[in-house]
Amino acid sequence: MSSQQPASAPIPPDAAPAFPAAPAPRKSPRTLAAALIVGILIGGAGVGVAWAVSGDSSAGGAAGDARGACHALSGFEPSDYVAKGAKGEIALNRFGGALTLSAAAAAGDAQYKPLAKALLIVQNRHAATYDFGDSEVKKNLDKARQICDDLD
Q1: Residues 117, 103: Cα–Cα separation, whole Å
Q2: Per mean pLDDT, which range of 44-53, 86-95, 115-124 is the poorest?
Q3: 3-state DSSP call for residue 124?
Q4: What is the pLDDT of residue 26?
Q5: In angstroms, rounded to a whole number, what is the distance separating the alpha carbons of residues 88 and 101?
Q6: DSSP string covering 37-63, please?
Q7: In the prediction, which pLDDT does 17 show?
């Protein structure tokens, strides 16, 4: 007889002791909001470039871009910006569209620079305060709307 003991079988991978995964790092709300704003701006810029490259003369060049910015701005409701669901998405995209189209209009014709500047100040100040009720945000949003009223 043999005095050898049977070899033990290897432990299957699914029976191996599992180590808990490290928790995912938390992202701050400011980081997420900044990423969202950058994404909207890049997406809006892509749409603007597509319009420019398509050569559609019915778009009206800088004047058409300014009208588009004003149209988007007229449908923008600041209180909806923080709403969940479709209402918030609409507000976010209308503001992003107004911002991007105003920049395209200003690039095409210097007369639209005040509109683009006012909306850029709104965007930058809002990114710092997250508050459309902030006096600087409100003042420049009102200024942009007045410029749009004067364009009609």
Answers
A1: 8
A2: 44-53
A3: helix
A4: 64
A5: 20
A6: HHHHHHHHHHHHHHHHHHT-GGG-HHH
A7: 55
- What are the backbone angles phi and psi of residue 66, rounded to the nearest 5°? -65, -45
97, 151 contact by CB (below 8 A): no
Residue count (the chain):
152
**pLDDT tens figures, 110-146:** 999 999 999 999 999 998 988 888 899 999 999 999 9
Which residues contact residue 97 at a Cβ distance below 8 angstroms, ignoring those fewer than 6 apart? 44, 47, 68, 69, 72
pTM given for the model: 0.62
For 1, counting Cβ atoms within 10 Å of its Cβ (0-12 exposed, 13-18 middle, 19+ buried), the class is exposed
CA distance 36 to 20: 31
